[in-house]
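Predict the structure of CBS domain-containing protein.
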Amino acid sequence: MHARDLVSGFPTVTADTPAVEAARLLAERDLPGLIVLDGDGLPLCVLPGTQVLRLAVPRYCQDDPALARVIDEDQADAFVRGLGARTVGECLPEQPRELPITDPDATLLEVAALMARTKSPLVAVVDGDRLLGAITLKALLNRALPA
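Done. Here is the predicted structure for CBS domain-containing protein.
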């Protein structure tokens, strides 16, 4: 089994996409993350959904989770409004990491190793200068686990 056998079309965004739109896309399509494309249409990075949440959750609640408990329920339920006019570009990690990108000939084990190493729930599959789609953790495990 190779990456080409598991790859499927996958929605993409750019660094200029509003973060709230990215969050909506994650929720509506039940996605583990998003592929962020550069100006040439190639993956700039894979953005796990948790990175989008980092912009919405107030920093003081991330630094001290006990503070999140003192926020009243109505305010706590509206935390996503904290995304405001921010963009996907603002969600990107400050330090570039290894990109979870592979070619169509990668084996299932190579894809799994890449996911594990990069801590990414999805891997972009690129053939030369063209994005073919992605392989999600769910798709990989569904194929790898015995029935």
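Residues 3-144 form a domain with the CBS-domain fold (CATH 3.10.580.10).
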